[in-house]
Write a structure and sequence with these properties.
One of its GO terms (cellular component) is membrane. The chain is of the alpha+beta class. 59% of the residues lie in helices and 7% in strands. Strands 1, 2, 9, 10 and 11 form a five-stranded antiparallel sheet that branches. It has a four-stranded antiparallel sheet with strand order 4-7-3-8, sandwiched between helices. The protein has a two-stranded antiparallel sheet with strand order 5-6.
Length: 818
């Protein structure tokens, strides 16, 4: 058996890739090109050798600042392109351009664009002022003609009540200190015309009324044209107003209020001939300005279109250059030898590719000195790297969300690929709902080439990334739905006739007395005659509960078996003898035996009470089982299994800490003897040496850790087995909820001979199925399957305390939003 296991071919996903710690000594003249080629390859993770330095103390900080400034300019161009509403055009590939030349180009384009924006803003402001002046002239003329007579009469009344009343010693109005108007203006009535935003008109009028104590006449009219705001570039609705008043003090206050509300005031002559002359002049200037604005916008759009055609290429180049200089800042710069020293991790299979890329960098940079690339010993544990594809990556992400695997540790994702969608389907089993999920998954898979190039939302991106998980979940749901014989909770005679029939032709006692079995069992899945029968719930509860226990015991045994492969791979015989063996004995002595009883009861059709058997296995192991005996020799077997379970607990607890202490003492005595016979030079460790220093062995800490581990496993065996009963609970809940929607919504509505009621019932059933059963229930079953893998399965063997391999790779660069 051992030889057979050793001859099995290695699995790429079972163990992480073998890593090696490497050192690079790169001449300064070829450093940039070498790092660029390594970024294109994406198989080397650099270690920061300047972690104690701040970003501003590093060698290439000025180059990083230049790249950040160019990135800022490119983002500015992107904002201007979006504001201009230019559509993405075909990217024009530019010939090789150096970073310095690109920096000069970007500075020129930015200066030109800022200047064009400034001129355009000034022209737009002048255009808006002339347009507002024209609108005010058109509207205010009508007010002056229609209100001239009313204004004069109101002015006369004002003079009679305010200025001609000699009985008042102190007047509360604002006109008491005003100078009388000139004789040329017989009425003393003045006006101010202007334009204001429509949203401010009511507050503006109220403020004018309070400031003038009601001694004014306010006329308004909506502007016929909307005006573009030069700052926000949005269309703004405005209102023309004319305020008639009397007195210089009132004029001052009204002008101050206009300034406070952002109203623009324009002079309007009283004579019609002057009004027409000014209107004509304003219209001609507007025409000239409009032509100038169009020409400026056209020129600006051409410049932006040119930038947009090269934007992707320039942005990628700046990102890459910044990433290269950030990586160079992680290397040590040796001033005396004119070289850079770097360290990092790479997979062993990638060493020839890295050496080829470094040789190519040396040749392309015309360097007379080659790049030194060699392996070293390392103190820290290597990173974890799994080669995944679009199918296996979502399962690896599910495992990594719990914790990244320790280096070369058994990877749960290999088994999660099948067990996760299957346990989901056990809870979600309905082949009608499974078909709906499968259609959604097939749509995502069919459009993956298009969706992979689009920017999706967070939820849609997660759904698209897990499209193959969704596909397997749907396929297993269809399979479990056929086992349960549920299609939107409705059973069908798919695989033949039922094995049961009514006692008579009327079938009146089918739901009370029950049915009669008259032929062989239904060939596949649950017999459809169980639906609606008197013992339907009891039968399905018993079936799904026992299935849950069987699946749980098999799943936990798989986890313990993987712990054996971990111990064997790392040559840890202590874990094999004092963890794997007692754990297998304890779990299977109790719950493995329970699974055996379930299978025997199904095969024999016995009426034994398994609850009674398991309880009295502990309370009275020597008593006669009576009618609960399922097979010969059951009672002595139970006694033996109980003794094995009791022996397994101290077996897990005591031997391993004492053996570790003994091995440590022997190793420590040998090391002391070697140190006494060695010279002082031998004791000095080299800087790159990975020789581990002596660490004090704390027996109490090791013993407490082992005791916690043993107690956790013993108690967890019970709680974890009970936790798998969620498979039964969620399956039952999903089935009953689907039955409620079918019987209480769809069938109830279909019982009415009314088309509207039937359509309403069908709509409610469709929405309930889509949003509750296909979305909420899917999420619920997904989370419960996730918990079963993270807690019940992975805690048997998985440490999850590693760290990911994150190589320097141009393909993984993301746009810096800040």
């Amino acid at each position: 058996m051992v030889g057979f296991i050793e001859e099995l071919p290695p699995m790429d996903l079972m163990r992480s890739e073998m890593m090696t710690f490497v050192q690079l000594i790169i001449p300064a003249e070829s450093a940039h090109r070498a790092i660029t080629y390594l970024g294109q390859l994406g198989l080397l993770q650099f270690r920061d050798l300047n972690a104690e330095k701040s970003p501003f103390q590093r060698t290439f900080v000025n180059q990083v600042k230049r790249c950040a400034e160019m990135s800022r300019k490119l983002r500015f161009f992107k904002d201007q392109i979006n504001k201009a509403g230019l559509l993405s055009s075909h990217t024009v590939l530019q010939s090789d351009i150096f970073l310095e030349d690109l920096e000069i180009q970007l500075a020129e384009y930015e200066h030109e664009l800022i200047e064009m924006n400034s001129n355009s803003e000034k022209l737009r402001q002048s255009y808006n002022e002339l347009l507002e002046f024209k609108i005010v002239l058109q509207k205010a003329c009508g007010f002056l003609v229609s209100n001239r007579g009313n204004a004069i009469s109101e002015e006369r009344e004002l003079e009679e009540n305010v200025f001609s009343n000699e009985g008042y010693v102190e007047t509360p109005f604002l006109f008491e200190e005003e100078v009388r108007p000139a004789p040329s203006n017989q009425s003393g009535l003045r006006f101010i015309s202007g334009i204001i935003c429509k949203s401010k008109v009511l507050r503006f009028e109220r403020m004018l009324f309070r400031a003038t104590r009601g001694n004014m006449l306010f006329n308004q009219a909506p502007a016929d044209e909307q005006i573009v705001d030069p700052i926000s570039a949005e269309m703004v609705e405005k209102t023309v107003f004319v305020v008639f008043f009397s007195g210089e003090q009132a004029r001052t206050k009204i002008l101050k209020i206009c300034d406070a509300f952002g109203a623009n005031c324009y002079p309007v002559p009283e004579h019609i001939s002057k009004q027409r002359q000014i209107t004509s002049e304003v219209s001609s200037r507007l025409t000239d300005l409009e032509a100038t604005l169009d020409a400026g916008i056209s020129h600006r759009n051409k410049a932006l279109a040119f930038v947009e055609s090269h934007f992707t290429e320039w942005m990628d180049m700046v990102r890459r250059e910044k990433a290269v200089y950030d990586t160079l800042n992680m290397l040590n710069f040796d001033v005396t030898k004119k070289c850079l020293v770097g360290e990092g991790w790479c997979p062993i299979f990638a060493k020839p590719q890295i050496q080829e890329a470094l040789q190519r960098a040396t040749f392309d940079s015309n360097s007379q000195i080659g790049i030194i690339f060699h392996s070293m010993d390392a103190l820290e544990s290597p990173p974890t790297y799994f080669r995944t594809n679009s199918f296996t990556s979502p399962y690896q992400e599910i495992v990594d969300a719990y914790g990244v695997a320790r280096y070369q540790e058994a990877n749960p994702a290999v088994y999660t690929t099948i067990t996760f969608p299957f346990l989901f389907a056990v809870m979600f089993g309905d082949w009608g709902h499974g078909i709906c999920l499968m259609l959604g998954a097939l749509v995502l898979i069919a459009r993956q080439s298009k969706l992979s190039t689009q920017r999706l939302g967070s939820f849609m991106e997660m759904l698209f990334g897990g499209r193959y998980v969704l596909l397997l979940m749907s396929l297993f749901s269809i399979y479990c739905g056929l086992i349960y014989n549920e299609f939107f909770s409705v059973p069908f005679h798919i695989f033949g006739a039922s094995a049961y029939k009514c006692r008579d032709n009327s079938c009146r006692d089918a739901h009370t007395t029950g049915l009669v079995k008259y032929c062989d069992p239904y060939p596949f899945g649950v017999d459809p005659s169980w639906r609606g029968s008197r013992s339907e719930l009891a039968f399905l509860n018993s079936l799904k509960m026992k299935m849950s226990i069987l699946f749980g015991v098999v799943h936990m045994n798989l986890g313990i078996i993987l712990s054996y492969f971990n111990a064997r791979f790392f040559s840890n015989s202590l874990d094999t003898r004092y963890q794997f063996v007692p754990q297998m004995i304890f779990l299977n002595s109790l719950f493995g035996y329970l699974s055996l009883l379930i299978v025997v009861k199904w095969c024999t059709g016995s009426q034994a009470d398994l609850y009674h058997v398991m309880i009295y296995m502990f309370l009275s192991p020597f008593d006669n089982l009576g009618e609960n005996q399922l097979f010969w020799g059951q009672r002595p077997l139970q006694v033996v299994l109980l003794l094995w379970a009791l022996i397994a607990v101290p077996w897990m607890l005591f031997p391993k800490p004492f053996i570790l202490k003994k091995l440590h003492n022997e190793r420590f005595q040998g090391r002391v003897y070697g140190m006494l016979n060695s010279s002082e030079v031998d004791l000095e460790l080299e800087p790159d040496s990975a020789r581990q220093h002596h660490e004090e062995f704390n027996f109490s800490e090791v013993f407490v850790h082992q005791m916690i581990h043993a107690i956790e496993f013993v108690l967890g065996s019970v709680s974890n087995t009970a936790s798998y009963l969620r498979l039964w609970a969620l399956s039952l809940a999903h089935s009953e909820l689907s039955t409620v929607f079918y019987e209480k919504v769809l069938l109830l509505a279909w019982g009415y001979d009314n088309l509207v009621i039937r359509l309403v019932g069908l709509t409610v059933f469709a929405f309930a199925t889509a949003f509750i059963l296909l979305m909420m229930e899917t999420l619920s079953a997904f989370l419960h399957a996730l918990r079963l893998h993270w807690v019940e399965f992975q805690n048997k063997f998985y440490h999850g305390d590693g760290y990911k391999f994150r190589p320097f790779n141009f393909a993984s660069l993301k746009e810096d939003e800040n």
